[in-house]
Amino acid sequence: MAQLDDVLQALDDGREAALERLFQLLRIKSVSTDPAYAAGCLEAAQWLVNLLGELDFTASVRPTAGHPMVVAHAKCGRRGVPHVLFYGHYDVQPPDPLALWERPPFEPSLTDGPNPTIRARGAADDKGQLMTFIEACRAFHERGGYPCDISILLEGEEETGSPSLPAFLEANKAELDADIMLVCDTGMWNPTSPAITTSLRGLVYEEVTIHAADRDLHSGMFGGAAINPVRVLARIIADLHDAQGRVTLPGFYDGVHELPETIAAQWRELGFDGAAYLANVGLSVPAGEQGRSVLEMIWSRPTAEVNGIYGGYTGQGSKTVLPAEASAKISFRLVGTQDPDAVREAFQAFVKARLPADCRASFNSFSNAPALQLPFTSEALTRARRALAAEWGKEPVLIAMGGSIPIVGAFKRDLNMDALMIGFGLPDDRIHSPNEKYNLSSFQRGARSWARVLAELSN
Amino acid sequence: MAQLDDVLQALDDGREAALERLFQLLRIKSVSTDPAYAAGCLEAAQWLVNLLGELDFTASVRPTAGHPMVVAHAKCGRRGVPHVLFYGHYDVQPPDPLALWERPPFEPSLTDGPNPTIRARGAADDKGQLMTFIEACRAFHERGGYPCDISILLEGEEETGSPSLPAFLEANKAELDADIMLVCDTGMWNPTSPAITTSLRGLVYEEVTIHAADRDLHSGMFGGAAINPVRVLARIIADLHDAQGRVTLPGFYDGVHELPETIAAQWRELGFDGAAYLANVGLSVPAGEQGRSVLEMIWSRPTAEVNGIYGGYTGQGSKTVLPAEASAKISFRLVGTQDPDAVREAFQAFVKARLPADCRASFNSFSNAPALQLPFTSEALTRARRALAAEWGKEPVLIAMGGSIPIVGAFKRDLNMDALMIGFGLPDDRIHSPNEKYNLSSFQRGARSWARVLAELSN
Lengths: 459, 459
Hints:
By secondary structure, chain A is of the alpha+beta class.
């Protein structure tokens, strides 16, 4: 097995070649959402299989109903070490609008200056990030071998909602099972502070429709006598929060835990400016639970939000209609061990309890994902923290994401695998936008970070 | 001046000729909403001017920005008698869908059987109705002269919302001023029970938009921290009614009066089946103020209704957006002497009182019409009731309409003229639908009714 110092030296010595490999991948137009680029997706998958083959991975392009997966496995030949599964995605967002790019999006380049950046579509999301892990693998391979068993899953549909992933996971459970998942699709806290994303909020998304009369009515002829479903729906929505900003569904806070004090203290020390965060979108008053910081509101507390509402006449001008039905799309962000089924059932019961005799409710369920919380006491987390601290000279921040990453939830649900989400993206990377970039330091120190993480996990 | 008995005899003797005149008018394709029929509208106006000229009215076609008005005046030569202004409209709804007509819509015919009906587009709405008044005039003219001064205003845009009427009224105030307005565009209670419509609800119609963040937000990144305008709007709507179904705007019930007991008793005796009225649209529980009948809810009580609501994502499926704004169209039906300006101001204040610091509200005002209530003690009403009772052998029902008739409101507002709304339509006349009809008895006894009303008003 390679020694860590040798591996790190190999990474430092091989920087130019590593950058050239990344540029090769960035030149491939693997836009997943546009069928015109289907050949580019296949080309990227094949390129990655070839690359991993050079590193003695057993790698293959695996067809799906959509763009293919890349699956690769490498054994270290040792016992008592973990088996890790790395996840990344080779597909990218469309480059439009092209006119806003300073250089063509699929012609990668390095900017000059003291903090060089790699410019190209996918530089950060996610080609640059996934190559940090593969470069770490290469360095181990060059200097004596892998420290643990490594599997790699690279997807080609992440930017289109991963439609083929659930079926692929289901069909390949045994092959993809591992001790822990490593994901490189998240960010650092700032350019010099590494971060591990330990919490992702879950999501229960329900569409509710309140049905009243069997047709739209004239508000002159029926107004006052016929029940108005918008009024019923408004009451339901208004009742969802109390005056302190807490969600009122019975049992909603079951499974919502207070942060460990060490984590809470770390978050307080981050210097996150909640006021500036809201001011940036024209707001000034945190709208969530009283007594909670903005960071808690978006990272560690559950929510109920109306994402859309519609009923009756919504065009220009006026129409004196009394609508037959009204609908709202309502979603709940979940944390801790909140049970999505219980939340959905509590919501439906909450609605039904507020239905007048003449109304009925129908529901569409669009999402039902639990929160993901890597236990703060997890051994893997402790080792990863140590690895990142050694590389960056400071403790990594344990951050949360307000949104969801479906792949992580799927592995947790189907294979009960926890995920270490370690990424080197930065808020100014302009992912999904013109002139996407990835800091050269993110790429180079990201690879060193993964080398250290793999070594720590295998000690 | 003609004697009433002579006039009624003239109407009975002239029935065939009267029907032929109505058929002539029904043959003219005066569809106001379709520019292809513009010539038909002008033709109808000119035909009516010619007809009124035969009756020694000073009549003219009066151009507007849209279809012309017909204005006609006849003096009786006596002092101390009222000056009445009759209003009707010569335009009709489009006949579509043509395939559903049993006979062509502009080829009027009389059905056979014990209760013959006149079949044609406009038979009831409003050509048949307006001709009941003109036939009464003709009979007076033939038998000795008019009992009072009579002006007639016939509009050609009623079916398209009377766009030219306000400016025409404003420009011709002095000419159109009279002691009372007579309107024949309403209905009877049933085929043997005449009715006078004495109440029309007013309408305040406001569109409110709640503005929060300066852009739509991602509910993962901002959910819980940023105020959701749908939640604010839902609270406002939910607060608009109390648990007893009363509207909670401060001062809202100022000017809402209890019905005189005699009218309340008459309504109770009508045998109106509120349960059947609601069952017909799939409902069973009256939604208005507790302790009020369905008839009161739609005829004599004010309401607050949401006519439309929209915000955020309203398409298929799910989107985790936290909307920047949310809007509702909210209308208030007014009764008695409720002040529309006061209601609008109370609503806007009600909204503003419920705005969190980060939200603002904007408003669009679409309607601001007071209720119209012919005083139950009005002398003209007393005389009209007597006239109708004499013709039909039973007291007319004093009914209300839940909706508005803009023309009546405009005359009340601009010229302070009350209106006697007497019509002979029936619920099964299929106005606006294929196979529109008007009972021959409505046409003939309607003309006799107007003769009696004119005589009573002039006594």
